[in-house]
Amino acid sequence: MRIGFIGTGTMGLPMLNNLLKKGYQVCAYDLASAALEAAQKAGAERAGSAAEAASAGDLVITMLPSSGNVEKAYLGPGGIIERAKEGTLLIDMSTIDPGTSQRLAARLKERRLRFLDAPVSGAVGRAIEGTLTIMVGGEAADFREAREVLSAMGRNIIHVGPVGSGEVAKLCNNLVAGAAMIAVCEAFRLGEGFGVDAKILTEVIAHSSGATWVMEHGHPVPGINPNAASSRAYAAGFMTDLMAKDVGLAVAAAREKRIPVFLAPTAAQLYRLASAYGFGRKDFSSLYEFLKPAAPDAPV
Ligand code: NAD
Fold it and tell me: Where in the chain is the domain with CATH 1.10.1040.10?
């Protein structure tokens, strides 16, 4: 099977690599020539546009930064819709707004093109290992057809429901992870303020009701978990800017459905603020560095 792959950046490149390893032929396109060259070096064929990559594929995958990029790659000049063969299954693995996925799917359906939203969880490390969690929205038959290709890139592949629901699940997950990280950072700053040893506090929380995935795997205090981003100067991992984007998308999605949310907007603004102060490209656990205590002589 030939796969058209559009967006060969941080995540796309290792995902493409795993497809090649499984014996798929890949025709790649990226706006950035360095990203496209890397894909070619890995063994992919090089396309001159998203439309060309799509026309070369029996199945097409996109892995792009945000909703605007996805709309452009599918519907813009030189976009996928221009040349994808009738009936082709198009899988968008980017994290974007669920409403955009639904509108896009409707436009593509008019051209007899099939669409799945299939965002991923697990940062670059799991993209390299091919062990991503992939949450899929779309028709059950299309999901069954996509499963084998997706399993070249991920380990847990879950059909969530109709188009857009993969994105909803992804935003819900990142809202939980983003808010939990803030709580963990605040808790460890509090412990530190009172001279509590961070290792002992970790042991307490790990055996109590506050135990959470982000503390176990992404501990924000350097030196506690040698595999966490904090122990390599907060090199991402999953960067603050992406968390700000994803939690912001959750806020927008909640607004669309008139659902009150309180933690989500605070979390989104906090990650944005951290980004504005230079933490945007660092792992989101660097929020711990951002949340420094005020001077000891500041009035309480
Ligand atoms: P990235 O910026 O590293 O890569 C995206 C690539 O898309 C870039 O190379 C860019 O040149 C290309 N691109 C943008 N618009 C294009 C267009 N119209 N046509 C062709 N190419 C285009 O981003 P990334 O980190 O790989 O993230 C991709 C998606 O995966 C995002 O939605 C992100 O939220 C999600 N995600 C990322 C991570 C992570 O840890 N990086 C984890 C889970 C999910």
Answer: 168-290
Give the pTM: 0.95
Q: Which CATH number is 168-290 given?
A: 1.10.1040.10
Return the best residue to mutate from 37, 242, 249 for the ligand 1 pocket (most ligand atoms within 8 A of CB): 242
Q: Which residues line ligand 1 (CB under 6 A)?
A: 6-7, 9-12, 29-32, 35, 50, 63-65, 69, 72-73, 94-95, 120, 123-124, 238, 242
Strands 120-121 and 132-137: antiparallel
Ligand 1 atom at shortest distance from the alpha carbon of 236: 40
Residue bearing the CA closest to ligand 1, atom 25: 10
Residue with the nearest Cα to atom 21 of ligand 1? 30
Q: Is 22 annotated as catalytic?
A: no
Measured in residues, the chain has a length of 300
Residue 73: phi, psi to the nearest 5? -65, -30
User: What does residue 89 show for φ and ψ, rounded to 5 degrees?
Assistant: -90, 120
pLDDT along the chain (300 residues), means of 10: 97 98 98 98 98 97 97 98 97 97 98 98 94 98 98 98 98 98 98 98 98 97 97 94 98 96 98 98 98 95
Where on the phi/psi map is residue 43: left (φ > 0), alpha (ψ -120 to 50), or beta? left
Task: In the chain, list all ranges with CATH 3.40.50.720.
Answer: 2-162
For residues 187 and 212, the answer to whether their CB atoms sit within 8 Å is no
Reduced to 3 states, what is the DSSP secondary structure of residue 142? helix
